[in-house]
């Protein structure tokens, strides 16, 4: 039995409006942890993802090693309002681990948010 450990955390992403981006997060632990994604839009409130917003999707699968799970958070056609901190949170009955990454979105005028 072991608490979750984030083997490969999400990384910061810089991209332009209209682009597609993906964060990934690989976690190990026993029992195999569950992964959830949350977003902090700058106010300290963590909002669970995906929401009812059709441009956000979450996928997960086992592996690549035993007792590991990999999850992806995908954002389609990003815009300035998507600039935020995204959290990967892994949990099992032994504990919890989390890591975050920031999405920076560049608008049409070249300004980075």
UniProtKB/TrEMBL annotation:
<protein>
    <submittedName>
        <fullName>LOW QUALITY PROTEIN: insulin-like growth factor-binding protein-related protein 1</fullName>
    </submittedName>
</protein>
<keyword id="KW-0964">Secreted</keyword>
<dbReference type="InterPro" id="IPR003599">
    <property type="entry name" value="Ig_sub"/>
</dbReference>
<dbReference type="InterPro" id="IPR011390">
    <property type="entry name" value="IGFBP_rP_mac25"/>
</dbReference>
<dbReference type="Pfam" id="PF07679">
    <property type="entry name" value="I-set"/>
</dbReference>
<feature type="domain" description="Ig-like">
    <location>
        <begin position="4"/>
        <end position="104"/>
    </location>
</feature>
<dbReference type="InterPro" id="IPR036179">
    <property type="entry name" value="Ig-like_dom_sf"/>
</dbReference>
<keyword id="KW-0732">Signal</keyword>
<dbReference type="InterPro" id="IPR013098">
    <property type="entry name" value="Ig_I-set"/>
</dbReference>
<dbReference type="InterPro" id="IPR007110">
    <property type="entry name" value="Ig-like_dom"/>
</dbReference>
<dbReference type="InterPro" id="IPR003598">
    <property type="entry name" value="Ig_sub2"/>
</dbReference>
<dbReference type="InterPro" id="IPR013783">
    <property type="entry name" value="Ig-like_fold"/>
</dbReference>
């Amino acid at each position: 039995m072991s608490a979750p450990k984030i083997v490969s955390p999400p990384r910061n992403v810089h991209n332009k409006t209209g682009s597609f981006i993906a964060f990934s997060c690989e976690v190990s632990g026993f029992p195999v942890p569950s992964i959830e994604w949350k977003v902090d839009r700058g106010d300290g409130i963590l909002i669970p993802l995906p929401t009812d917003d059709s441009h956000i999707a979450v996928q997960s699968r086992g592996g690549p090693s035993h007792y590991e799970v990999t999850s992806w958070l995908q954002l389609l056609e990003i815009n300035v309002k998507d600039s935020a901190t995204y959290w990967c949170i892994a949990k099992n009955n032994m504990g919890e681990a989390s890591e975050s990454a920031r999405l920076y979105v560049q608008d049409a005028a070249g300004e980075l948010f």
